[in-house]
């Protein structure tokens, strides 16, 4: 499998199958999120809701694929050695684009999970069609505390199980797990941060939803730019060629 992922890409020969596959999945999930926005704009709540869930599945597949392939990520993090352009281009163009991309992905991920949770609470089914319902949308402080405690509890239990069940639990893996659970806490915390600012659930869905969609559009631009720089404009040429 690993050999296949490292073989020359199907989009450009300077890429790898792994990098091409993860880029293609990224394009599919971001474009389908944007199409879901168009559907919501046209008032097709149910089609919007369905496409959002399909896009979510392809986004999870993308992250699993990315984790296994790691080609784009590994190359991007290899430092200057993984980049065929000059040091100036690397520092002044490539790194700023890559860092912007990573920050956008983090915000996009947090907002997506939050928006799906908010979307279900802010809408209802009327005659088979999902519609946004007006009115205040709050989580009581007790419920909020309970959710946070559940996340912390599952995080601690997961950590203990990994410790007992694995031969070794490297520091990097421990940090990654902690970050995943901190992200879940952040997702839930968005609720408390925006409840006062945007108390109406439907209005909150539209405003935060549009912000999330703009982030998706920017993710599409920055991932395309990163891919093009790594594999089309500045690929690493093997020594002697
Ligand atoms: C990543 C998750 C989501 C995002 C980013 C998102 C984004 C949006 C945006 C931007 C709009 C307003 C469109 C516009 O006027 O410009 C909207 C409307 C709507 N959304 Fe979502 N949404 C998400 C998830 C959901 C979910 C899970 C549901 C249902 C369970 C849902 C149900 C609706 C409904 C019913 C509307 C109103 C459509 C209409 O105007 O008739 N959304 N959404």
Task: Describe this structure as you would to a colleague.
The structure is a single chain. The chain is mostly helical and 241 residues long. It has one domain. Helices cover 75% and strands 3% of the residues. It is built from eight helices and two strands; from the N terminus they run αααααββααα. It has helices spanning 2-6, 17-41, 45-69, 71-77, 87-122, 141-165, 171-195, 201-233; strands at residues 123-126, 129-132. Strands 1-2 form a two-stranded antiparallel sheet. It is globular and about 60 Å long. The structure holds protoporphyrin IX containing FE. Protoporphyrin IX containing FE (HEM) is lined by residues 37, 40-41, 43, 45, 48-49, 52, 112, 115-116, 119-120, 123, 130-132, 205-206, 209-210, 212-213.
């Amino acid at each position: 499998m690993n050999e296949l992922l490292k073989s020359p890409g199907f989009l450009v020969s300077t890429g790898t199958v792994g990098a091409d596959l993860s880029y293609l999945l990224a394009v599919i999930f971001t474009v389908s999120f944007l199409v879901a926005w168009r559907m919501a704009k046209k008032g097709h709540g149910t089609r919007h809701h369905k496409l959002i869930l399909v896009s979510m599945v392809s986004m999870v597949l993308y992250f699993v694929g990315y984790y296994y392939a790691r080609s784009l990520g590994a190359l991007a993090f290899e430092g200057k050695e993984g980049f065929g352009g000059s040091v100036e281009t690397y520092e002044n163009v490539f790194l700023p684009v890559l860092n912007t991309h990573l920050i956008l992905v983090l915000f996009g991920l947090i907002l997506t999970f939050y928006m799906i949770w908010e979307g279900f609470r802010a809408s209802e089914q009327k005659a088979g069609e999902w519609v946004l319902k007006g009115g205040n949308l709050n989580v009581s402080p007790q419920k909020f505390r309970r959710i946070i405690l559940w996340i912390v509890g599952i995080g601690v239990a997961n950590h203990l199980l990994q410790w007992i069940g694995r031969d070794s639990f490297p520091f990097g893996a421990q940090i990654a797990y902690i970050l995943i659970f901190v992200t879940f806490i952040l997702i839930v915390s968005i609720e408390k941060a925006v409840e006062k600012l945007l108390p109406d659930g439907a209005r909150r869905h539209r405003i935060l939803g549009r912000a999330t969609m703009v982030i998706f559009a920017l993710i599409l631009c920055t991932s395309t730019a990163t891919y093009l720089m790594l594999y089309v404009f500045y690929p690493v040429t093997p020594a002697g060629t």
